[in-house]
Design goal:
Distance between the termini: 31 Å
Helix content: 40-55%
Largest sheet: 6 strands, mixed, barrel
Shape: elongated
Radius of gyration: 29 Å
Strand order of the largest sheet: 5-6-11-8-10-9
Number of strands: 15
């Protein structure tokens, strides 16, 4: 360690550039990792993502009619009711809607609204500030009750507690507020909204509803990941039952596209396209490799510059019997610690950037489907700072060190002791 401190002091400019370059490289790659991880790690209310399965769409064809859509509430209920190996199931809108909200004595404003069943609040871990959610009887009776977020509550009342019991109008339909929950981050895109209301009654005469398609998705919380296969087999069996209800001469086809999907696969699922985890992971590895290789090439030249100034030192050590392996190992360890310092700085910068500039990172891309995202919760510092994130940083740091230092260290270890000493005296 004393040798490392000495080298940092003896070549401060080169050491500083190396540390800053490493920090920037790690910062960039960790932002990419964070953008991926935030879709997978458990974040309240989606606190059990490792146990979640989703059926969010289906392909239908019947004669000349075909298309990819979300599910009808009736089919979602049939697929999810009394499933073996489950803790709870939920039915909710596949996409949220923007509605004009008004309350007596308050200015109107826009808010994101999502329809759900009563099981929604059992499946996801919302933090209730006041009141209680609507129940199954409320949903079946199509009562106009609403659960709203804390920020929305402050728009319609003096406090969240005062909002419970008040009436609000959503696009000219009056609802009674029954509960207030903590604001939800748009990162939890399966549950995100600012107002949640009971499922609306479906029109059975509508063609798409009659064939099992609509605007809903099914969320299944398994008791554990070990129950996934059991759940998948039962859902597949129920799809076969749905198909068997239609005469063969109608050429009826109903395909849920390989669902139910676990969290990672669901993030890649688009209507009509099955997720390819292997392809997606290989693409990410290519991106990581590029983000590591480019700075490694630049840092390698910095390492060679530092080692050229230490030729005589290496020559003396070789003259006194230090082996090539020992020289190479010492250089790698020394550079690893320097790289580690830069990596920790880059990781810290990444976490600060992600925590303070949430909107700039997480409301872009796929999260832009949410309108009116003005007063919502952000991803907490504790959610971003996890052991997997730290492990990624150390791994990338180690790989970056090998790529940038390996060849210069190997060349330095092969220096001729006599020539090295003589060259330093010229």
């Amino acid at each position: 360690m004393k040798q490392i401190v000495y080298e940092l002091k003896s070549q401060p400019v080169i050491a500083a550039v190396t540390i800053i370059g490493t920090a920037l490289a790690i910062f960039l790659i960790m932002v990419v990792v964070m953008l991926q991880q935030v879709k997978l790690i458990s974040i309240a209310p989606e606190s059990d993502r490792d146990r979640m399965l989703y059926v969010s769409g289906a392909f239908f064809s019947k004669g000349q009619s075909s298309g990819n859509y979300a599910l009808s509430a009736a089919v979602a209920k049939e697929l999810g009711e009394d499933l073996p190996g489950t803790e709870s199931v939920a039915i909710m809108d596949n996409y949220i809607n923007s509605s004009v909200v008004s309350a007596v004595g308050r200015p109107a404003f826009d808010a994101n609204v999502r329809q759900t069943d009563a099981g929604f609040f059992d499946t996801y871990n919302f933090r209730f500030i006041a009141g209680h959610p609507y129940n199954e009887a409320d949903v079946n009776s199509h009562l106009n009750k609403a659960v709203i977020s804390e920020s929305t509550a402050r728009e319609v009342a003096e406090s969240p507690e005062a909002a419970v019991g008040k009436e609000i109008t959503l696009d000219d339909v009056t609802y009674t507020i029954v509960a207030v929950v903590a604001d939800v981050s748009p990162v939890t895109d399966k549950v995100f909204a600012q107002i949640w209301i009971p499922l609306a009654e479906e029109d059975p005469t509508d063609f798409w509803t009659s064939v099992g398609l609509g605007k809903k998705q099914l969320a299944i919380k398994a008791r554990s990941a070990d129950d996934f296969q059991k759940i998948y087999d039962e859902v597949s069996r129920r799809v076969d039952i749905i198909i068997s209800r239609h005469p063969e001469d109608e050429e009826f086809s109903f395909n849920i596209e390989g669902a139910p999907y676990a969290q990672e696969a669901e993030t890649l699922h688009y209507s009509g396209r099955r997720p390819d985890l292997a392809h997606d992971r290989s693409q990410r590895l290519i991106v990581y490799a590029i983000l590591l290789l480019i700075p490694a090439i630049n840092l390698s030249s910095m390492t060679r510059s530092r080692l050229r100034r230490r030729v005589s030192e290496i020559g003396v050590r070789r003259a006194f019997g230090c082996t090539r392996t020992k020289v190479m190992l010492d250089i790698l360890i020394e550079n690893f610690f320097i790289t580690l310092i830069g990596s920790l700085i880059g990781l810290l910068a990444c976490i600060i950037f992600g925590s303070t500039l949430f909107d700039a990172i997480y409301t872009g891309g796929s999260f832009m489907v949410f309108s009116n995202v003005t007063a919502v919760a952000t991803v907490g510092f504790s959610s971003l700072l996890n052991w997997s994130m730290f492990a990624y940083a150390v791994l990338f740091c180690f790989i970056l060190n090998l790529l940038s230092t390996g060849i210069p260290a190997w060349r330095a270890s092969r220096v001729n002791p006599v020539e090295a000493i003589l060259s330093s005296n010229r």
